[in-house]
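Hey everyone, long-time lurker, first post.

I ran two proteins through the pipeline my lab uses and got sequence/structure pairs for each. Pasting them in order. The first:
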Amino acid sequence: MRRRDITERHNRIKGVVRKIYHDPGRGAPLAIIEYKNPIQYGREKVIMAAAEGVYTGQYIYAGKTAPLFVGNILPVGEMPEGTLICNMESIPGDGGNYIRSSGAVGAVVAQTVSGKTVIRLPSGQKKIVKGTCRAMVGVVAGGGRPEKPMLKAGRAYHKYKVKRNCWPKVSGVCMNPVEHPHGGGNHQHVGKPTTVGRYRTPGRKVGLIAARKTGRGRDRTKKQF
């Protein structure tokens, strides 16, 4: 999102989608939106996740008086209840922190009297933010990405190569004692309780950290007939 200036706070500004492209390591496509600088001569380009249905050459409006249309950016306090949103700010002016993964969508649940807005996040959790926080109308593009199966290890290798070093995951019991607290032994077994305290040293905190209870959570009490 562009910097929140006086134009967006009281009126609106028009931009145009110059390009939509794929970013390696990210599921959602990115859009380059070009605005005219309202204060001095020149243009400014903003890169953000594209909403589903946005196309190259489309006009994007950002500001308090922007129309309620897919791809436009408005304060959540100006949206009616039930509006589907993405790219939401948690603090006014931070540029958007929530609802940015491919296919993700949130919704405006309610507007409070105190000027705050209740938002439903993709996880189902409710979050209360200030009504001046901005969000984009619509759903993040690239939905349905996890539905296609990987089928082979090579695709997972290339997927995580551009992201971070988190694949493949090696089990701790496969390792030696110098490499992992669960390593060692003549057979692959942990050999100690997998629960570990919250205040143990960083190298020891593996397994069930500060677990309140463990197990499958079955009802062990006998039912009274």
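...and the second, right after it:
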Amino acid sequence: MNEPQVAFLCLYLLYITIILFFQHTLIMYPFRLLTTFLHELSHAIACWITCGDVRSIRVFENEGGVTSYVGGCRILIIPAGYVGAALWGSVFVMFSGGRKTATGAAGVLVAMLLISLCYAPNRTMVCLNVCYAIVTSVCIYLEWFVFTPILNFVVLFYGAFVGIHAIYDTYSDTIRRSILQSDAYACYEVCPCCLPRCVGVQWAILNGVLQVLAIWIAMVQLSEECEDAGWWECMNGVVGGNDLWDVDGVKHTLEDW
């Protein structure tokens, strides 16, 4: 491993340690609300993708939330909450390594925070979204005009917390206990072939895989082989078969063979 990869892993492990120790304290309360927002936003995105109509997106002080919608494919909208929050976390982690990718991830988050305010938000969600939009925008400004790196650290923390908390929420709400109002029970009502706790286990496993995959992609992006390659060029080389890896000190692509 090179120096950036070691630094990334050490910082990620440091974040995870802090998160596990302080996850349920007041310090992490705003980040738990952010995870709830991304959970509800994921329901909304799944509704939009399946041609449904979102009526409201709301986040409450007790860290709960609700997305009201009409139409759409319910069997896809229901699991989008827990899985979608984990997906957001994985995206933040995998894009945190580069300056431009971290800026892109932060910019998309700010856009989603502001767009969601058009869907009948409650007071808690308005305060949450405005504050996060301001803080994240300030970090983007500082990154490009004052000091770098700073946005990489912020985006990585967002990803680590949201990803880990999404896994914990999935376990707490769908595996450890079975609640009639939970997404897992709603999924069971639509597709009774799988019990609510079994649904929760599948979601938890998928959420864990997403976080591990994000770490792997981030490590690939920070490798020496991808140093001079763009994000998509690097991933196309690794996943698509145009290998950029060194063989006897010489870089080869698939066409060379």
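Reply from user beta_strand_b:
Welcome! Quick read of the second one: The longest strand covers residues 53-59. The longest helix spans residues 196-221.
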